[in-house]
Specification:
By secondary structure, the chain is α/β, with parallel strands linked by helices. The chain has three domains: 143 residues, 3-Layer(aba) Sandwich (Rossmann fold), CATH 3.40.50; 249 residues, tm_1862 like domain (pyruvate-formate lyase- activating enzyme, Alpha-Beta Horseshoe), CATH 3.80.30; 59 residues, OB fold (Dihydrolipoamide Acetyltransferase, E2P). Helices cover 33% and strands 22% of the residues. The protein is built from 14 helices and 20 strands. The strands form six sheets. The chain has a five-stranded parallel beta sheet with strand order 2-1-3-4-5, sandwiched between helices. Strands 16-17-18-20-19 form a five-stranded mixed β-barrel. Helix 9 packs parallel to helix 10 and helix 13 packs parallel to helix 14. The chain is globular and about 60 Å long.
Amino acid sequence: MKYYIVQLGCQMNISDGERVRKVLDEMGFEPTDYEEEAGLLGVIACSVRQKAIDKVYSRIQKWNRWKNKKNLITFVTGCVLPADREKFLKRFDLVFAMNELPDLPEMIHQYGIVTPAGLQSLDKGLQDIELPEKESRNEAAFRMDKAVLPGHEEKLSHPEKGIGEFWHITPKYSSGWEAFIPIQNGCNKFCTYCAVPYTRGREVSRPSGEIMRELKDLVEKGYKSITLLGQNVNSYGLDKKGEEVSFAGLLRMIGEFGDNHREKFWVYFTSPHPRDMTDEVIKVIARYSCLAKQIHLPIQSGDDAMLIRMNRKHTVEKYRHIVQTIRRLLPEATLFTDIIVGFTGETEEQIENTRKAMEEFKYNMAYIAQYSPRPGAVSSRWADDIPKAVKKARYHLLTEELMKHSLAYNKSLIGKTMTVLVRGKDRKSGYLSALTEGKIIVRFGSEDENLIGRFVKIKIHSAAPFSMEGELVSKEIEHPVNAEI
């Protein structure tokens, strides 16, 4: 039987999906790029944005129509709010939290699907199965561990429980040169617009020994770009004070390994929170060459009153100190951010303050989102009082500001020779696409696909707001990337 998975959301969801694929592969399922061929259809969902949830409903409606013509099993997992989960239980065959992934083979077997890996032991296995007495056929629903969080009436699942067993699953990496390593899960910040604490639970740090083993294994296999993942990645270790290293300590361990390794690789991390960003972290990044000189630092708004309303727990001045430290210690670093426009009650003065912040900090990239309320988040109780047309206008205002500074930075690199990591074929025929250490897109003329996943040197000759173009100068000498994925 073949399986097909729809991947939605952030890099953490992409990483989670790699572990889902590994479990399904070990059960004997085969992946397919065509959903019409699959007998097992799944979604790695994201409740953080309404648009992503709308895609889930659209997909399951189609799949359920297909059930009139053939036997299918559907599942949904990922970042799912309790309100969405209750609706999904009526539409999907299986609904489970990501920490329940190790139980997925049992869920599928109990649902009555015969897999190649389980065929020989099916008779024996069926003798031991005791199905729960309940109306729903969903085998994951009865395992939801619910509790009431202080100050919240909604009942929330606790996906942080059992996350350690999930981390022990070896991913089926979707690339031979780029990989993600989850180091932390969950969030304790409770920003008023955000659903993450309700979908992923409280902060839990992964043991540093496990992280280092996974990273060393990836580097030995030839991976060149590795991203450390967490909802609050730089709060790593705070839940295990005295038992685990800090985030700066973890980066230092990675840096020491990189200094003593023969191959070149870049390590990134996302997403940090300004409240937990320390000068020590920036100093460690400056010290080690394998720690990529690119910082993603979400500001969300450039207005202090709005930051309070968002419960961000940082001020513009605090944020300014971090950026000034980055500019002083990492002058070559690029700076990325996240911004929300049209949040409840946002005034023209407040959006102007955000524009001024973008003008001051001169971001290379900003992921600008038009606010949409999510059930469960505190702000969902407030009036969504900014019209869509105003949100769109503010989005374009900030995008224009971003383009101005991104273009100026990219133009400053014209004539320079830069080391880039080739990531694949470009949309422009006869060209390959690459990324600088600061994650700026560079295209260059070449049809040599053997360069994909390798470091090369490119001389920049032209620039656009979010990309550059250049010519191949030389290939760096290194062992080839492991092509097995």
